[in-house]
Structures are given as structure tokens and as C-alpha cells.
Amino acid sequence: MSDAYTPYNEAPAPAPEPRYEPPAPRRSRLAWLGAFGRGIDRLRRFVVNTLFVIIVIALIVILLQGFGSKVPDKAALVINPTGAVVEQISGDPLGRFTDQLTGQGEPETLLKDLLDAIQAAKADDRIAALVLDLDDLGSVGMSKLLDLKAAIVDFKKSGKKVIATGNEYGQNGYFLAAQADEVFLHPQGGIILEGFGRFTTFFKDGLDKLEVEVHVFRVGEYKSAVEPFLRNDMSAESKEANLAYLNDLWATYLRETAAGRKLQVADLQAYIDNFKANVAAHHGQLSELALKARLVDKLANPDEVRARLIQLVGEDEESHSFKQIAYTEYLAARDEDRSGAKASGNLVGVVVAKGEILDGSQPAGTIGGDSTAALIRQARQNKDVKAIVLRVDSPGGSAFASEVIRRECELARKAGKPVVVSMGSVAASGGYWISTSADEIWASPATITGSIGIFGMFPTVDKPLAKYLGVHVDGVGTTPLAGAMRPDRPFNPEVGEVIQLIINKGYDDFLTRVAEARKMSKEAVDKIARGRVWSGEDALQVGLVDKLGGLPQAIESAAARAKLGKDYKVRYIEKELDWKQRLVTEMLAGAAVYLDQPADAGVSHLPFLRETRALSRQAMLYARFNDPRGMYAYCPYAVE
């Protein structure tokens, strides 16, 4: 008997007939591509998640290793700057650390870190010597070299030795090495001093071949930022102005380098002028030439340099090298409030304005009209801050953003707080604009400043689109201005006349700002403006700056203007971080110590390659410009 239940008087239901199932269709090529894409996406997520876990583990390990840093007794402090030396590190801490792990980005070294470490070591009995390991030094403005030179010379007053070592010396590195008591060079190395130059890539013929038209509007025959789009060579006016400030900088370089080595400037100049003959006389052995010219004291392999340093400071039992500590580890071990974040009482607030000037809020390493103005406003509204120092290291950029920052400085002065500008390696165009509302302007003799001028550019590509791609643009508008600013349409000459009028007004505003600030007539300012660049020394002579000196002198002057006497502290006014950003910053402080351990002297220890990205950077720079009126006070300086 069946266990199945059948209702009364109801016949069992017949079994269903099997349905016909057609064979599964073959996947289309698009379906396979979709599946492949989803697989790639899953793989991407897996790789990203794995990398994230690795980074977290690495951070934890590095953080634990960073704790408990200790300064060895009678050790050498190793100054081993990496990449460009800057007034402010670019970007955010996490992004910088990720770049280091992946080998991306350009390494940077904070000037303040180097100066603070050298200054602290001078009076620290645990530090017996200073070692300059300069193999990985990148670009450094001449004013920064002078600051570092002054710190090294001051350190030597303690009676402690300064030793410079390098596999080879570039121009920047040798300037610092020349200040040492003993300079070592690898037998296979050399020293090449090529002088300063400014060279620009010009695009006019290339643009003409492509039929790309760049419509340029400017005031000032020296305003050379737009010349690459108008010419195939540097104008006579630009050559005149550029050579004038380059000669000033080069004279400073020769004078300070020769003094460090106790040579005559003429001897150093002869080493360069007769370089080919000198190299031939030494059969291509650059190191022997450098030794003969007394640019170095000894040719030595890394083990020989190590032996000399062991003799000087003693041997580390674990590494069997000389007792040493990297400047980053040294600063971490001292655990000082170097930014003045915890300082109280009478304060001099320092706001760093470094990089191109752009509209809006910008990350560190770039000057944002809104973000930098907010820092100045923060200093103005802080009752403990009695005076403000604006440290400017900028070639300029957006005229609009420059005015936003200048206005904030003006409000600080109206609030009764002195504002003093300290110019770094460059404070030109917009960099000078933001300096005009100050009680006093300090510049280094090697500062590049001035370039008081305005320009605007508008490219049109309608011709190459039509000729090479067969693309045409047409339409209607309710006014003559409708569509006038489209780059894919022919440029309207009347619009060009309007833009030139706006540029002229911008230049007149610039002259007015400078004339009022420097107590000069607009006509007198115009004679030294028109886009011309000046060295700090010449800028003092023509009245664009008040005094020559560095940041410490500017801070002292600001304190004196606020009548603080000697009873004051310095606080760097920086953007406040949230708790997550602070956590990452603290973790990465340990990472910096771990990644910057010194190797044996004379041996490069960096896992990262220095690559030249000047061309791509120039292209990206113009793409980033975002002035709401398209008007720029910018000086694309370069000293090479």
C-alpha cells in the first residue's frame, strides 16, 4: 500500500510529462568580456586589500621600532638630506608614505629639520661630530644653501669636527661640503661645477605646425612666462634680466665656497673655466683633479672614511661602523615641540607660503588663496600671537588668490599685529604680491624676487581639429559673448581686446599695491617692474625689500615690532588635523626614522631613484592654474 495520501473520490494526478530543455546557448563574446572584467575587478580588490594589510603591518612594526630612540654617547650626527630641500613638505603624511613604499613621487627634505638638528647638536655633549652625507641631495635654492652653510659654520664654533663624504659631489652638495673641516671623495668620483643657468623650452614652431593658436595677454617686456608660446628663443630683455640675477647668485656661490675651502675665487673660477684642459691633464681622473685643485682633502673609499670616523667618534659594537645617528632619529629622540604647538604666552606666529599660488584650499606644498588666508586669519584671531611672519617661497600664480592672501595680511596689521615677510629662495610675481601688505620685508641676498607683471593665455584648437580630424564646431548664441571662450572655436578679436583691458587693470592694481607698500610713485615702481626679476641684493637697492637676512632675523624683527623683548616663543601656524590625521602623522613619524637610517658613510642608502620630471611638471602646472579671471602673476624661475 502506498504511503501517498489520495483524497476521497479523486484519481491520482498523472505524472507530468518531461519539458523540453533547449541546450544552453553559448556565451557571447561580450558576456565573456564581462566575466573577465569582473574577475579583474575581484583581483584588483584582493591586491588592494592585501597591500593595505601589508602597509598596516609595516606601519605597526615601524612604529614600534621608532619608539625609544636613543642618542648614542659621543656619536656623529649624520645629515643625509634626500631629494629637494624645501620650506614645507608637499601633500599629506599618508600619501607621502605610500609614495615612498611604492617608489613614486619625488622625495623632499624639510629645511627646518636640518637646521634644527644642526643647531641642537652644537650644544649636545652626546654629539661629537657632524657628518655630511650628500650623495642623495637634490635641488636646493641658493638661499637655503646659505641658511645651511650658516648653521654648519655656527656648529664648528663648538670645536666639534664636520666631515663631508660623497661618492661624487654635485654643485649643491659641494657648496655644503666646502664648509666642512675634512672633505672626502671616492677615488672614482668627481666634482663638476657648471654654474647657474636658466634654459626654457620654446614651442612656437611646434604650435604653428599644429596650427594651435595661443592668444597671450601681458604687461611688461620682461614677463617671460609666456615667451615659450610666442617665440623660439629667449628675448633680449629676458636674457638681460636673467643674466643679472644669475651673476649675483653665482658670485655668492663662488665667494662662499672659496671661503670655506680657503681658496681664492679666481682659483675656483679657473677650475671651471679650464675644465676640459684640466681633465685632459689628469687623464680623465676627476677625483685626482679635485684633489689637485684643493677642492677635497683626501680620496677615500667608504671603508677608509668609516675608519676615519671610528677614529673620531668610536666604533659601534653591533654594526662595527662608527657611532652615529641620523638627523631624523635625533630629532625624534629629543622629542621637542619644534613647531611651538604647545607654546604659550607671547607668540610670534609663522605662516609658511610655499609653492604655486592657486585659488581655493590647497594641500601643503601649494599656496591656496583660501587655505593660506585662513592660516593668517587664525594667527590674527589668536590672542597669544602678537606678531606674524609670512615665510614666502613661491614663484606666484593666481592673481586673485594672491590678493585674497594680501588682504588677510592687511587685516592682521589693522588688528594691531605686525606682519613681517621673510623671503626664501623665490618670492616673485604673486609671491611678491602677497608680500606687499607687510610692515617689513626681509630677503636673502640670493632670493629671486620682483617679476611684477601680469599675463593671461587662451589657446584655440579649431584649425587642427578641422584639418587633422575633420571636426567642426558651429551654432548660435544670444549674445556676441556666447561661446566666445570655447577653445574649439576661432577666437573673437573683440574678446581679446577685453581681456587685454582686464590684464592692464590687473597690472595697474599690482603697481598700486607695491607703490602704497613701498611708499613709491607708480611711475617709479613701473620702472623696476614690467615683469623683471631681481636678486635679493639688487631688490634692496631698488627698494623692493627692506633688509637682507634669513627667517631668524625676520622673527626677531617681528618680535621687536610687537615690543616683546626676548620674552617670546615661536609657533608655526598650520592647518589643524583631525584625530585620524594626527594618528597617521604620529605613526609616520616613526616610519620616517626607520626609513632614514644612515648607512656606512659614503654609501647611498636610499631605495628610491631620483628621476627628472621637469617637463611633465611644467605641463601639469599650467593645467592646475585656476584663477577665476584667468589672470596670473607667475614667474617660472629656474636656476640650473
Describe the structure.
The chain starts with 28 loop residues before the first helix and ends in a 6-residue tail after the last strand. The protein has a domain at 48-168 and 319-338 and 580-603: 2-enoyl-CoA Hydratase, Chain A, domain 1, CATH 3.90.226. The strands form six sheets. Strands 10, 13, 15, 16, 17, 19, 20 and 21 form an eight-stranded mixed β-sheet that branches. A six-stranded parallel β-sheet has the order 8-6-5-4-1-9, sandwiched between helices. It has 23 helices and 22 strands. It has 640 residues and is α/β, with parallel strands linked by helices.
Give me the Rg, rounded: 31 Å
Strand tally, please? Answer: 22
Q: Estimate the mean pLDDT confidence.
A: 86
The CATH architecture of the domain at 48-168 and 319-338 and 580-603 comes to Alpha-Beta Complex
Helix content percent band:
40-55%
CATH fold name of the domain at 48-168 and 319-338 and 580-603 = 2-enoyl-CoA Hydratase, Chain A, domain 1
Shape: globular
Query: With helices defined by DSSP (H or I, 4 residues minimum), what is the helix count?
Result: 23
Which stretches of 5+ consecutive residues score pLDDT under 50?
1-11, 589-618
Distance linking N and C termini: 104 Å
| Biggest sheet statistics | 8 strands, mixed
What proportion of the residues form beta strands (DSSP E)? 15-25%
CATH class categorisation of the domain at 48-168 and 319-338 and 580-603:
Alpha Beta
Structural class, please? alpha/beta
